[in-house]
Automatic annotation (TrEMBL):
Residues 1-157 form the Serpin domain. InterPro entries: Serpin_dom, Serpin_fam, Serpin_sf, Serpin_sf_1, Serpin_sf_2. Gene3D superfamilies: Alpha-1-antitrypsin, domain 1, Antithrombin, subunit I, domain 2. GO terms for molecular function: serine-type endopeptidase inhibitor activity. The lineage of its organism: Eukaryota, Viridiplantae, Streptophyta, Embryophyta, Tracheophyta. It holds the Pfam family Serpin. GO terms for cellular component: extracellular space. Belongs to the serpin family. This is Serpin domain-containing protein.
């Protein structure tokens, strides 16, 4: 899951506009290097979405599947489900759900040391705090293909 936290507390809508205008925005802004994180706070949240997609699918050209006179979806049903009649779609519902909480969260620690080196080594950059205490966008991205599987935003991220 990737979280895009705007710098400004009221910057979510400007960020959303940028994301919508550039199809590669998310890919271009994914982190390329590890960053030491100090204070990390992300609120627990649960979101769900449900919608009847029948009209959208028909507008996209999937009309015959809904037409009882033309559709024949009997091959998609269990034997006898149509009672000898041809089957057609009546409704297509889409539901999505995401929950982010402390369960399953893993913590990792990394300790590094440099021994016996005579070259000057600059100090590591200071840790970056990530506190999602104002509206943010999030994406669930499949790592191998880079496909965005789920996208959303949280408008009221009240942190407990």
């Amino acid at each position: 899951m990737c979280v895009f936290l705007p710098d400004a507390r009221d910057g979510l809508w400007r960020l959303t506009d940028k994301i919508n205008c550039d199809p590669d925005f998310v890919r271009k802004h994914l982190p390329r290097n590890d960053v030491l994180v100090g204070d990390f706070r992300l609120p627990k949240f649960k979101l769900s979405f449900g919608r009847d997609m029948s009209g959208v699918l028909q507008e996209l050209g999937l009309k015959e599947a809904f037409d009882e006179g033309k559709a024949d979806l009997t091959g998609m049903a269990e034997d006898g489900a149509g009672g000898g009649r041809r089957l057609a779609l009546q409704k297509v519902m889409h539901k999505a759900f995401i929950e982010v909480n402390e369960e399953g969260t893993e913590a990792a620690a990394l300790t590094g040391s440099l021994v016996g080196c005579s070259m000057y080594s600059p100090p590591p950059p200071p840790p970056v705090d990530f506190v999602a205490d104002h509206p943010f966008a999030f994406f669930v991205i499949e790592e191998v293909s880079g496909a965005i599987l789920f996208a959303g935003h949280v408008v009221d991220p009240s942190i407990n």
